[in-house]
Design goal:
With 179 residues, the chain is of the alpha+beta class. It is built from five helices and six strands, in the order H-E-E-E-H-E-H-H-E-E-H. The chain has a single domain (2-177), classed as Glutaredoxin, CATH 3.40.30.
Length: 179
């Protein structure tokens, strides 16, 4: 039985040491190079998205900005996490920032370029990995995690899910309405 439980834990990616905590317990470097403490997003709903500037899904920036503009007054945040884990990101934070602002009018919070998978992943993504099944791990750019006001993961959405899809919008609205 113990062996079986160990296999289940390995398969589903749970790690009792890194599975503890909540989204709000982490900090990450902003695209401007400053520490961004995620506890500033307590009582807000966050859509965490790993992004890339040279990907077929890059036009999703427009949809992400659209839903940010639509729901930000209700306590909704889009947090973009540029990553080169799939070899499709620009070389520097300043290039990413300029690209996103000029091309898509992005003004939602963004982090510096981060590792999101593997042993070198940012601790936030290690926490996500420890709390989600293997199938919920980012397989490509623009993978999305919806984080509730309490800092717990509500759901995940693949790269194929448009930021303006009815299903995602419904989940955002439900999360915003939750106490």
């Amino acid at each position: 039985m113990k062996y079986f439980l160990s296999l289940l834990i390995m398969f589903f990616g749970f790690n009792s040491n890194s599975a503890t905590g909540k989204f709000h317990d982490f900090s990450i470097e902003s695209i401007a190079g400053e520490e961004m403490k995620l506890d500033k997003f307590k009582n807000k709903v966050v859509l965490l998205v790993n992004t890339a500037s040279q990907c077929g899904f890059t036009p999703q920036y427009a949809g992400l900005q659209k839903i940010y503009d639509r729901y930000k007054e209700e306590g909704f945040i889009v947090l973009g996490v540029p990553s080169n884990d799939f070899n499709q990101e620009l070389k520097s934070d300043s290039e990413v920032k300029e690209f996103c602002e000029i091309r898509y009018g992005v003004n939602f919070p963004m982090t510096s370029i981060q590792k999101i998978k593997g042993q070198d992943a940012h601790p936030l993504y290690k926490w996500i990995s420890a709390n989600m099944s293997v199938i919920a791990q980012p397989r490509w750019n623009f993978h999305k995690y919806l984080i509730g006001k309490n800092g717990e993961i509500i759901n995940w959405f693949s790269s194929m899910t448009s930021p303006t899809s009815e299903g995602l919008l419904l989940e955002i609205e439900n999360a915003l309405d939750a106490k």
